[in-house]
Amino acid sequence: MLRDDNASVELTGSTVFKDERKQAYLNPDGADRPLISPVPAATLDRARRYRLERLRMKMREWDCGALLLYDPVNIRYAFDSSNMSIWTMHNPSRYALILADGPAIIFEFEGAEHVNDGLPGIDEIRPSKSWIFFTAGNLVEPRMKAWADEIADIVKGNGGNRRIAVDRLEPSGAFELTERGFTLLDGQELAERARSIKSADEIELMRWTIRVCEAGMARMYEISEPGRTEREIWAELHFENARSGGEWLETKLLTSGPRTNPWYQECSDYVVKRGEMISFDTDMIGPYGYCADLSRSWTCGHVAMNAKQREIYAAARDQIEHNLSVIRPGMTFREFNELSWRIPEKYQPYRYTLALHGTGMADEWPGVLLHPDFDPDFSGVIEENMVLNVESLIAEAGSESIKLETQALITSRGAERLDSFPWEEV
What we know:
The chain is of the alpha+beta class and 426 residues long. The protein contains 12 helices and 17 strands.
């Protein structure tokens, strides 16, 4: 029986090992070097054209004259245009307007127009009219009216109908557009339904983001030693993503030992002890703006799991493998729910509410809840060329949590995993 002097976790064996399979995911050119994408420029260009056409196709289906986008993820999807994405998520200062039968226009943050040079989907670049309080102060109302007048003039001038789909807009801005005779539609639904079906080129871009994420996880694994803080381990994923051309991490979901249960605590300066479980969810927006949303759990110090850790890890693997095996294109969400893995009662109070969710440039529609939470009125169909993440979180009273997640492309044959970073052997 092995026991670390500073640990409160007893181990069932004395084996201390490094999983050689994981080392293969580090950069073969050297750990001190970033990964360099092998994806040809032509692949990215085809993906750009496909994505803009997907939005226009949905606009035609919805009889929508224009699509107004503020969400930086949707703007990236439409144009591959990225500028201060996190900042503009909470300071809506740049936007896009796509006409069903007219130009696609980016309204760029003042002084940053050049970041859109060379992007083929953009027909026109205009300076944005920002009317957020931070920059407009007491001038919010006149600036907002000037913004609404410009949008109205463009749509009317291009002969578009008065139906505008908008993804995110303050109530006062929505009021100004309706005052000018427009009917507003849910542009977030339109965009997410467009985004849900991936092209082969998008999948190639996503595979590269996953490759970078897995290199980051390999770095995390290498330093998962006693005495490290949760933040130190988590920083390895940030480092690999940033230096390899990635964007950001959506969450801070890495915890260890007693901090894994309940889930959703954020990583901290807690010092991890030998034998404690380290569980995490990457939620990584990587190169090309695509998301790698992977979860793994392993022990600190690379030691064998104790009996309880093995038990709950095995249950999590069962859930992942079962749910992967039943997914088929053409299956309704309700049909998937009826066939999905049934979480044992002792784990239910600590469950993760999602069984599946879509993934593209971020987590996206559909979000299919675990069977105890599933609403039978939630409608939809699993379609070929969706990318779905299959989730598991298993814990019981007094135990640690095991978090596992894999990302899968839906093919004519079922779910094909896009990630391959090894599970633990139990």
